[in-house]
User: Fold this.
Amino acid sequence: MERTKMEINKLAEFNGNKSSIYALEGLIENRYFFSGSADGMVVQWDMEQPTQGKLLAKMPNSVYSLHHHVESGYLIVGHNRQGIHVFDWQNRAEVGSLNFTKSALYDLCSFKNLLFAGTEEGELYVVDIKHLKVVQSFKLCEERIRSIRVDALQNKLLVGASNGKLYVFDLKTLKMLEEIQAHETSLFSIDFCGSIITTVGKDAKLKFWDDIAYALQETVIGHIYAINTIKYNAEGSYFITGSMDKTVKIWDAKTNKLLKVIDFARHQGHVSSVNDVFWCSDRTFISAGDDKKIILWQFDGK
Assistant:
């Protein structure tokens, strides 16, 4: 149940997509962002010109993951069946690629010069981005690696998989610290805020864990169907979730209470599964899903 009369504004809709959108990636303090879709299209968008999407690349298979590597400025595309492709997006040129797996890559994340890539066969690869070579790999399970997050302040690498487990690694040594059965079914997404790690998944639950003993602090039934994604804003005041139930929800990060439900009936939102979201600022975000829609939202404070 909503706890506030928070106002939601639909600022723009980015049209022209021909297939489901699986991945979004934004640039820090930049008006540009990227989308990756089931038809292999990687498109660059301008928040100030919603109708002016520019095709950056056409992959032969679906694109499930995108990552902006801050140190190099490059956009890294996680390919289905063909590893990664690296783009200098400003000059609209591919500058490298590495075909290290025949599996789909479901998430990418980086720390300095290292890229972490998770496959559908339960493998976690560590790639030297500068030299484009695999420096280490782990076989964590037989199911998909769905979510990877780097907590540099706590020196931890968080990995979530479709076996419902949360794996915690030391970021510098890559030694596994913990293996937690976080969900009984698939874990789809991870994020963190302060000392709390939050996991979501197929069971439609949000689970909040402390990052020291990894004890479960709270469980919330968040949506009607599977929760595909969760993201905290940089300020740590809100988080958003996107679900197979076609809704985006805004939550209070301090209390874990629901603040607002964004749907089609009330806000002209999505009409099918919401697959990914990302924050543009502390009160502005973008959502995308199976309905081929990409929508820019803004909300006021409580």
